[in-house]
Amino acid sequence: MAFPGYNLSQLAALRSLQVVDWVPQQDLNNTIVMEAFSTITSHEFSELVVVLSGIVIAPLPHQDMFFRTLRKMNEVRPFKLVFSFEGPCFVQRGERWELTEAGCQLKEALDCVDSKGFLDFLDAPPTIRIVPRSHFYDWNFSDFD
Questions:
Q1: DSSP E strand stretches across 1-145
Q2: Which tens digits make up the pLDDT trace of 57-85?
Q3: What phi, psi does 85 have (nearest 5°)?
Q4: CA 123 to CA 25: how far, in whole Å?
Q5: Is 139 helix (H, G, I), strand (E, B) or coil?
Q6: What domain range is 27 assigned to?
Q7: Domain count within the chain
Q8: Are the C-beta atoms of residues 89 and 99 closer than 8 Å to each other?
Q9: Is 9 a domain residue?
Q10: Of all residues in the chain, what percent carry a pLDDT higher than 90?
């Protein structure tokens, strides 16, 4: 199956591929990501960024297919794996920053993934990036005229 809109071979300076809303349990999503990934020809490429949302975090340790796909992708072209989460992961309490429930769930899920050996194909442990969600996302725009 070919997805012509996902040909990345013309991007000669591509260093990082960011995949957003990758629902791992769906075969089609794995196929699309794998096919797009296989078109990368840039010698600069080194990093695959998987952007996670709160709904994907909890089932992450049970996504065998997702990690098999990542393993296959790494066999095609080795990469550094990055899990990026945009959301409310930290909260400031006085002068201290603490993990929110979502931040704790992400850490626990990735610890579980690691303990199952799902990431043993990587040369280095994955990087975790937390991108604080803007307060603007919490606005309900229907409240404004």
A1: 16-20, 47-52, 80-87, 90-93, 96-99, 127-132
A2: 777 788 888 888 899 999 989 999 998 87
A3: -125, 125
A4: 25
A5: coil
A6: 20-143
A7: 1
A8: yes
A9: no
A10: 17
